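Propose amino acids for all 474 sites.
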């Protein structure tokens, strides 16, 4: 028998019910599977289903952790031994992992039951989730629109209440973008807060970090307590937290110095409803007693150019390794045109170009560090336009010239915090007149997730979002 009250609880709450023996892990899994059957045909968020794996976890006995018995989705970029991991690529549609990623193992140790993989664009390269292999993941608030990317499946699944928390990762905005587009909470941790091994020490030149998307702030904080910390091979470590992250939620944030902007970092005009939402949020913060002023960091270099070079170099390596495995050059029958074009463009650059991009990223990071000497928090729009329509960003187009200007208009402000390594979160504080979510992005100093969790907990109390449900909802 399924557990019909499932949707009334966050993940911490569900785990408490399991501990108190008011519900079993099997009942929660059955409910998550039933919810998947109900709404996933409309949104296409769960692209690899391995219910048997989760059932075997329960049969073997789950670890005693903060999320014991809670159903969970792994993003289809990370490895779970004995299950398919496709990375959204046709070439890898049958690839089966032979070991667990370090972060995956920490999720397992926290007690979750992993019943499937959430959708990702091919190799996580796009801020929308529309892989050729699986087709588009649709936004539960309006299925003509994207749920964001690259953690778009996680965003859609959490928003549609298939489950309260799911794995996500962020190399240029890929936790915050789907959090904004899908109307859920998303925290990008400080660089190296959570591990990326054992097969690599860092992702995208140190830009990438993994965590979760969630309905509640406390789920994000409790999960970070469970999974953070270096592994033996970590090339660097994040500053240690002052106290457990879970203790920050509900703690008085004090009077914060908050700077804000309602503009693109490039100075371009943004959607007027989003700009209005930023200003409304600034007024809300001032009303809560924070010191709020309009002030934005200068751009020391072009983040888009940095991302093109760094991500392109990493993509070129991925393609080369896949070609070596296949024993032949890869074509658009194997990988999407955007992936191949990114790799090909990278091959035209020199090692000095790559090091130059690293230097530009440092210059951006230095400018941000200087800016944050004058504030505790920086508020800006997560996205500068509403969630894109399905098909607006076409990674299989023969002409890819539309991609760069669309990204500049859509998500110009997220990647700079990947370059600086600073924590940043998207909080679902606004919806436009068409009913689409508009996330507000808050960034803090390096290592200061605690400050963000305190502020997020305060905002969750005064402007709650948990009871807002999209039209497509389990």
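Proposal:
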């Amino acid at each position: 028998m399924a557990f019909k009250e499932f949707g009334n609880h966050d993940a911490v709450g569900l785990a408490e019910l399991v501990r108190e023996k008011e519900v079993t892990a099997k009942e929660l899994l059955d409910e998550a599977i039933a919810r998947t059957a109900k709404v996933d045909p409309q949104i296409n968020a769960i692209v690899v289903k391995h219910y048997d794996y989760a059932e075997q976890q329960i049969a073997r006995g789950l670890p005693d952790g903060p999320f014991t018995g809670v159903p969970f989705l792994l993003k289809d970029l990370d490895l779970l031994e004995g299950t398919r991991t496709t990375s959204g690529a046709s070439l890898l549609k049958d690839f089966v992992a032979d070991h667990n990623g370090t972060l995956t193992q920490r999720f397992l140790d926290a007690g979750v039951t992993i019943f499937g993989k959430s959708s990702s664009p091919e190799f996580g390269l796009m801020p929308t989730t529309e892989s050729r292999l699986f087709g588009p993941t649709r936004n539960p608030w309006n299925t003509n629109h994207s749920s964001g990317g690259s953690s778009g499946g996680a965003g859609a699944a959490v928003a549609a209440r298939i489950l309260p928390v799911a794995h996500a990762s962020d190399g240029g905005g890929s936790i915050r973008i789907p959090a904004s587009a899908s109307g859920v909470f998303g925290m990008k941790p400080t660089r190296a807060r959570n591990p990326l091994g054992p097969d690599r020490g860092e992702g995208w030149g140190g830009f990438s970090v993994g965590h979760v998307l969630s309905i509640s702030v406390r789920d994000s904080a409790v999960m970070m307590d469970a999974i953070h910390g270096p592994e033996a091979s970590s090339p660097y470590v994040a500053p240690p937290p002052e106290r457990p992250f879970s203790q920050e939620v509900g703690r008085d944030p004090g009077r914060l110095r908050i700077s804000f902007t309602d503009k693109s970092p490039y100075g371009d005009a943004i959607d007027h409803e989003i700009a209005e939402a930023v200003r409304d949020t600034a007024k809300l913060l001032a009303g809560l007693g924070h010191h709020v002023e309009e002030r934005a960091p200068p751009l020391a270099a072009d983040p888009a150019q940095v991302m093109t070079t760094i991500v392109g170099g990493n993509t070129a390596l991925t393609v080369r390794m896949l070609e070596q495995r296949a024993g032949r050059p890869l074509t658009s029958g194997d990988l999407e045109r955007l992936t191949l074009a990114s790799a090909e463009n990278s091959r035209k650059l020199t090692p000095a170009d790559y090091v130059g991009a690293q230097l530009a990223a440092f210059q951006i990071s230095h400018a941000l560090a200087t800016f944050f000497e004058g504030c505790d928090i920086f508020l800006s729009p997560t996205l500068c336009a509403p969630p894109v329509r399905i098909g607006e960003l076409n990674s299989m187009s023969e002409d890819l010239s539309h991609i760069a200007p669309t990204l500049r208009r859509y998500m110009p402000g997220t990647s700079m915090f990947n370059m600086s390594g600073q924590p940043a979160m998207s909080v679902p504080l606004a919806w436009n007149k068409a009913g689409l979510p508009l996330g507000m992005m808050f960034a803090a100093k390096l290592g200061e997730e605690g400050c963000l969790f305190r502020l997020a907990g305060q905002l969750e109390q005064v402007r709650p979002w948990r009871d807002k449900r999209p039209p497509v909802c389990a």
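The domain at 6-462 is CATH 3.90.1300.10 (Amidase signature (AS) enzymes). The mean pLDDT is 97.
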